[in-house]
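Quick start: read one record
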Amino acid sequence: MVTSQGDIENVRRAFANECDGYLVKPVDRDSFEAQLREVGLIP
């Protein structure tokens, strides 16, 4: 999930609803790629 809402309640809610990853905007390329690797979408 990519969002502008980085408060802890939104993060908790996202993971409670089976979110695999959570990035807060603005997202830098390295963080984005690392998250994609973590969930197995890129090698």
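Strands lie at 2-3, 23-24.
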